[in-house]
Known about the structure:
It contains 3 helices and no strands. By secondary structure, the chain is an all-alpha fold. The mean pLDDT is 81.
Amino acid sequence: MHNEGHTQDMALEMREIIRHSQALVEATADEVDERVGKVREALKERLNAAKDKYSELNGHIGDKLRATDELVREKPYHVMGGTLVLGLLLGWMLGRK
């Protein structure tokens, strides 16, 4: 499924961003400047919040994708009919000048 591959690509990119941020925090561990310490702590807090939000969002998106996939597999003609109606309405609205 195309959406699943796209979701996995986004998840991989988010993990890379988190990994690079963690490396930055670790690289500045020996810095003694007060400003660097404050920024480092703020980055740690935001990084932890981002991890929590990412895992929550990842689970939520996965649930929605599975539910959508299940609906399409159970009722393909309803989905096709809905898509047809939506396409006709969109075409009609865009065709008006």
